[in-house]
Amino acid sequence: MNLEKSLMAAMVLIAIAASVVAIPYSALILLLLGIVSSIMSPVTEIVERTAYLIVAVAAPNAADNLDMIPVIGGYLNTSIDGIAIAAAGMWVASFTIALINRIKP
Question: In the chain, what are the domain boundaries?
Answer without folding.
Answer: 3-103
